[in-house]
Design goal:
mainly alpha; 3 helices; 69% helix
């Protein structure tokens, strides 16, 4: 890497605007709480579902709860400063 390329890259880096997240960090604890609470509600609902021969409804509820839990845990980690 030549010195000219290094200085060009350094100047470009200095000229770029700072990173700004799409979702404000002050909102992350509330998002985490809503998503994780929804996960627990769906988990309770999943445990009370009657057993079907074709588990389409069970699969939909479990998949939704899993997605909400995944995003809720990421939001929770980010709200306490562990940026994953």
């Amino acid at each position: 890497m030549s010195a000219q390329t290094y200085y060009t890259t350094q100047a470009l880096h200095a000229a770029l605007p700072p990173f700004a997240p799409v979702v404000p960090t002050a909102v992350l604890p509330y998002i985490a709480a809503i998503l994780l609470l929804s996960t627990f509600v769906l988990g309770f609902y999943f445990s009370t579902l009657p057993k079907d021969t074709i588990p389409a409804r069970e699969t939909a509820v479990a998949s939704t709860a899993s997605l909400l839990a995944g995003f809720g845990v990421v939001a929770l980690f980010c709200s306490v400063g562990v940026y994953v």
